[in-house]
Design goal:
This protein has 13 helices and 19 strands. It is of the alpha/beta class. A hairpin with a 2-residue loop joins strand 15 and strand 16. Helix 1 runs parallel beside helix 8 and helix 1 packs parallel to helix 12. It binds flavin-adenine dinucleotide.
């Protein structure tokens, strides 16, 4: 038996590691068109991880993944830049009331979350103004904060380190080979069974099992293979900006303010992001500095004095792999034996990677999910109309 994994991002790394950890004997070959582990969306992400979600499947995947990040050093003996910074969602009154309803369920599942009153917000983020002038409110279409959601177990990691270490550990268990600069043209199957993958140069590599972890490129690869998956690439941008000393932001959490503007400290600077609402699907990742200047920084300025000095130091665009309900597709591809999907993480692949990789590895090696039942994330949900309705999205 031979197994091919397409894509060496964080997801390809997690599935490879967990297969080997579960004693999978087959040789695993991982193919990536780029030159190093995690070089695509993984390394371009903000590295944030939270277990504050409205749907049980996302709650379970992220809660388990946060535990795995926290214990990573014990598990592997290596570091991934883990920082238990927490997440702070600043909330308007209606949002606050919505979140209040989730708390009992979260506590039952062991999620460490609490609502805090507005007066306590500056204890977490110095000088953040929970109320501002009416003129500003009207101009920016924003409101007074009623309070905030505080997720104490949430964290930040270095996703490239995680990816690299997972591959290193998998290789140490034996029977794992990484192939870079190798683009897969298509997956070949006959009589409802995976036979091989065909590379862009025409070479065919036999495999009985194929795992698709190609992120934002999964849709086009499946189309070239004559198969169907609904995943589109959507650009998201991040900005590293100057952090004035006077802000005293050394130990702030990942903070989410108005309109989904989020920021956290990284090596003495601030990284800031916001999903552009009208972003059309496509592979173009050109970064737009004006978007930060006009659509992100003004909200920071409205809330926190001196953030007008947070000028851009560097910036980049990357891709989300987006599905019709903004949640991952995990499980078997129906009608093609040996083809497994673990892709389309729509902006939360870092924070779900450990638990998702573990669960799919169980399905492959043991025929069923053992730790977390991910059958609700199967591709069949779209045809069956069982979409996952996640409401806590940034
Ligand atoms: C700006 C930004 C911020 C983000 N912030 C966060 C965050 O804070 N927290 C979080 O959880 N998530 C975040 N994400 C999302 C996260 O980055 C992704 O969900 C995650 O990286 C998905 O991992 P992946 O392995 O599926 O994809 P990728 O890392 O993109 O890996 C897929 C790999 O497949 C390879 N590939 C594709 N097609 C082929 C082919 N035909 N042949 C060979 N190789 C191929 C690619 O080269 C790539 O290396 C962010 C994303 C962006 C862009």
């Amino acid at each position: 038996m031979s197994t091919s994994v397409i894509g060496a991002g964080i997801i390809g790394a997690s599935i490879t590691y967990h297969l080997k950890k579960l004693g999978y004997n087959d040789k695993i070959d991982i193919y990536d068109k780029l030159d190093a582990p995690g070089e695509a969306s993984t390394s371009l992400s903000a590295g944030g991880a939270r277990n504050l979600w409205s749907t049980p499947v996302n709650l379970k995947l992220t809660t388990e993944s946060l535990k795995r990040f926290a214990n990573f050093k014990e598990e592997t003996g290596r570091g991934i830049g883990y920082e238990n910074i927490g997440y702070l969602f600043c909330l308007y009154e209606d949002e606050y009331k919505q979140i209040e309803k989730f708390l009992p369920e979260w506590h039952k599942l062991g999620v460490n979350a609490e609502l805090i009153p507005a007066q306590r917000i500056p204890d977490f983020v110095p000088n953040l103004m929970t109320d501002i002038d009416d003129e500003f409110k009207e101009f920016l279409d924003i409101n007074q904060f009623k309070g905030a959601l505080w997720g104490k177990d949430c964290c930040a990691i270095n996703p490239t380190s995680y990816t690299t270490v997972m591959f290193e550990c998998a290789k140490e268990m034996g029977g794992v080979e990484l192939h870079f600069g190798k683009e897969v043209e298509k997956i070949i199957f006959t009589s409802g069974k995976v036979q091989a993958i065909e590379m862009k140069d025409g070479n065919k590599v036999h495999c009985d099992c194929c795992v698709l972890s190609a992120g934002a490129w999964s849709g086009e690869l499946m189309e070239r293979s004559g198969l169907n998956i609904s995943i589109v690439p959507i650009k998201r941008m991040l900005f590293t900006v100057y952090l004035p000393e006077e802000l005293n932001f050394k130990h702030i959490p990942m903070t989410i303010i108005d309109k989904g503007v989020y920021f956290r400290v990284e090596v003495g600077n601030l990284i800031v992001g916001r999903a552009k609402e009208d972003q059309e699907p496509g592979f173009d990742i050109t970064v737009e500095k004006k978007y930060y200047e006009d659509e992100m920084n003004p909200y920071m300025q409205a809330r926190i004095p001196k953030t007008e000095y947070c000028r851009i130091l560097s910036c980049w665009g990357g891709l989300y792999a987006v599905t019709p309900d903004n949640n991952a597709i995990i499980g078997k591809y129906p009608g093609v034996e040996g083809l497994y999907l673990i892709t389309g993480f729509s902006g939360h692949g870092i924070m779900e990677a450990p638990a998702a990789g573990q669960a799919l590895a169980e399905l492959i090696t043991e025929g069923d999910y053992k730790t977390i039942d991910l059958s609700s994330l199967s591709i069949e949900r779209f045809e069956e109309g069982n979409l996952i309705k996640e409401t806590i999205v940034i």
